[in-house]
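Let us walk through a complete example step by step. Step one is to write down the protein sequence. Step two is to encode the small molecule, flavin-adenine dinucleotide, as a SMILES string so that its atoms and bonds are unambiguous. Step three, shown after the inputs, is the structure prediction itself.
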Amino acid sequence: MASVDPPIASSYFFFILLWLTLFYAFSPLLPPSFLFLFGLPPLSHHICALLSMPVQATMLSFDVVIIGAGPTGLGAALRLTERNRTSWCVLDGSDVAGGLSRSVKDDHGFTWDIGGHVIFSHYQYYDDVMELAIDASGWNVHQRESYVYVAGAWVPYPFQNNIHRLPTELREECLGGLERLTEAHAHPPAALNFEQWFTNQFGEGIARVFMRPYNTKLWTVPPSAMSCAWVGERVAQIDLAQIKQNMARGEDDVGWGPNATFRFPKEGGTGGIYRALASRLPRGRVHLGPEHRVVAVDPVRKVLTLRGGRQLRYTALLSSIPLDELLRALAVGLESATGAAPHPPLDAATCRLLADKLDFSSTHIVGLGMRGTVPSFLKTACWLYFPESHICFYRATVFSNYAERNAPEGGVGA
Ligand SMILES: Cc1cc2nc3c(=O)[nH]c(=O)nc-3n(C[C@H](O)[C@H](O)[C@H](O)COP(=O)(O)OP(=O)(O)OC[C@H]3O[C@@H](n4cnc5c(N)ncnc54)[C@H](O)[C@@H]3O)c2cc1C
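Step three: the predicted structure of the complex.
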């Protein structure tokens, strides 16, 4: 068996140590996912691994691991950066950042959002982040122009302020509901679910004609099975005197609401915001692609397993993935943690049971890329609601109205 002289062995050791030190010292210059792919943590972690944890040398360890590079995950990553935290990473099983807010560009040059997002907020921090991603000159600002299509009539949004556009019978039904509501409930009782909430707010007429059919179509579950805690400021409150005045004058009243004006990136769709935001985070921290899909979360040992088997250790975990998916990943992780102490409050079987119990809906988004120009009646339209059950879709968006570059020259995208 060949032997190695002690002086030669120590110079090999020195050389390897020097190589590792230089590698880490210059690691920020390497492409973003390079270090991660080779399982290389920041220098401080690596020294710890060399000195005290030889068995775990290939398992990365972070103070914070964020699962999901959608708006929530990227927002959290930005906050950590602002607070000068360095031991964190973001993992996402998709090839692009943005989550449900991402956009795609097709082979014909049309850009599509998943559903046509609009950006509005009254939070200064949120607005600042939007401009960190895309500077002020990169945005279009639009006046919302939105309609509800009912019984052949186009009723401007907000629906309750513009019921004069409805056919007579429906208009009377909606107005009657509003009047009865005002007489009966100067202060409507607290609603226990979404169905009760909109019936208390808008009366039985508007509930029957618009709110119930539209929301049943949109959420795919009965509104009576939904909470109303999320509604907040998104739906206009009733001003009966104003509604009657609009009816008497035949005037549209469209200015209400937090999204009466909204903005949209001139290029790249909504997803352009989140791609830009991801690129402004420190390099090598956001890891995208199927190999970064989290398949197991072991909350006992605080270890994540990625598709393909690689593992990471975390101190704090921030998940922005669908709750049922997190519960299933926890179930897998808890099974692998059998025998480890302490036992968490949930076991694998309970996690699976809870995941199965959760309701969720999904939707198909269809993009129609057409040659030509937008018909004059839709020239400035943004989005249109279709509550009636004989129409199979619930909403349409004239997406090329949001930004010229959402469609190639001479094209219309909807
Ligand atoms: C049709 C439609 C229209 C909408 N319109 C608007 C709008 O106009 N304005 C607005 O503000 N919002 C709108 N939204 C809502 C908005 O899209 C979401 O609120 C937002 O994307 C949620 O961000 P998130 O980061 O919490 O989650 P998500 O966007 O769902 O991101 C979660 C991320 O986790 C990743 N992931 C999932 N599982 C795993 C795993 N196991 N391992 C690793 N990664 C994983 C996913 O790939 C994804 O990137 C709309 C949504 C839809 C569907």
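Step four is interpretation. Residues 152 and 243 are 21 Å apart (CA to CA).
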